[in-house]
Amino acid sequence: MKKVDIDKLFNVPERKPRTICICGSTKFKDDMMAVAKEKTLGGFIVVMPLVFPHSGDTITEQEKEKLDGLHLWKIKQSAYISIVCQDFYIGRSTIREMKFAYEYGKVIQVFNNGHFIFGLHKNAYFTFPKLIQQFNEKSQEIYKEMLADGTLKGETK
After folding, report:
1. Alpha carbon distance 86, 50 (integer Å)
2. What is the pLDDT of residues 55-106, one digit of tens each?
3. Assigned CATH class of 19-148
4. Gap between the Cα atoms of 16 and 38, Å rounded
5. Which of 74, 85, 82, 110 minimizes the C-alpha distance to 26?
6. For helices 61-77 and 92-103, what crossing angle results, to 10°?
7. Predicted pLDDT of residue 2
């Protein structure tokens, strides 16, 4: 049997689906899984954290560093990232992931409390600090701390 016939037999898409990477605090595991389901049903290939330290999984600091690097690789390979948050809160890791995605020109979508809020692209004439202003005061404070401690190099205040 030819590859084309096998693909049709198994209902394989003709073109490679776009990949989306889900980002956010692992505290929001249920919301992340809901977005993953929605995006999968929408025809996307979904990559996301599958270890949830803030939801009960125990990992070492070395494992966390390895997983952080792996997650950035997932972002790099994706066309989009979906930020999952609650009450517009994002922490240090998510801010770093958003900055990484922004620098790579990825489309950034935001889901807050389970609902799609907005999507932006670097070429849509927005700056990263302007994006951060869309999040709550605590998140903006964390961002300022990251600027002060050098976590977000090259970023202006």
Report:
1. 19
2. 889 999 999 999 999 999 999 999 999 999 999 999 999 999 999 999 999 9
3. alpha beta
4. 18
5. 85
6. 30
7. 77
Question: Looking at the predicted structure, is the pLDDT value of residue 157 above 60?
Answer: no
| pTM of the full structure | 0.89
DSSP, res 55: G
- DSSP 8-state class, residue 86: B
What does the alpha-carbon distance between residue 157 and residue 148 come to, in Å, rounded to a whole number? 9
Going from the C-alpha of 27 to that of each of 73, 100, 101, the distances in angstroms are: 21, 21, 21
CA distance 52 to 156: 32
The H-assigned helical ranges of the chain are 3-9, 29-41, 61-77, 92-103, 128-132, 137-148
> Using DSSP, how many helices (H) and how many strands (E) does the chain show?
6, 5
